[in-house]
Amino acid sequence: MGNRAGEAVELRLDATLAQLPLVRTMAAAVAMRQDYDIDSIADLRLVVDEACGLLLARALPFSTLVVQFDPTPTEVRVRCSVSVLNETPLARSGLGWRLISTLVDTVSTAVFDGEVFAELVIDLCMARRAAVA
């Protein structure tokens, strides 16, 4: 990640549901700064909230939720990650995953080995939508 100096944002938070309002606020701020329309701002907030919710369901107690926003003039890329106990991949089914995959242009998930714990990651990209006249 990282296209333009000074534009990328990274949040490191306790991996708890109580932190989701801050993540949603940052998602909206990033989209507003890129001059996204109101609907796109709401969609990005919703998608990031849902992605983090899916990860938090698997997160280790006392771990850290990392959310990286990488905006460009044409898109916003987001990477969300948490430490997990095992390398079981995230289920790509259910309402949450369906919602995410419907609202973004690309979404993927992966599990990476760690020294002690694995890292579960969701990467997504939301392109700027053309204005509707």
TrEMBL record:
Q: Output the Pfam families linked to this UniProt entry.
A: HATPase_c_2
The yes or no answer to whether the keyword Zinc is present is no
Q: What terms describe the molecular function in GO for this protein? A: kinase activity
This protein's UniProt keywords: Kinase, Transferase
Q: Does the keyword Acetylation apply?
A: no
- Record domain Histidine kinase/HSP90-like ATPase: where: 14-109
Q: Please indicate which superkingdom the organism of origin belongs to.
A: Bacteria
Name of the molecule in the record: Serine/threonine-protein kinase RsbW
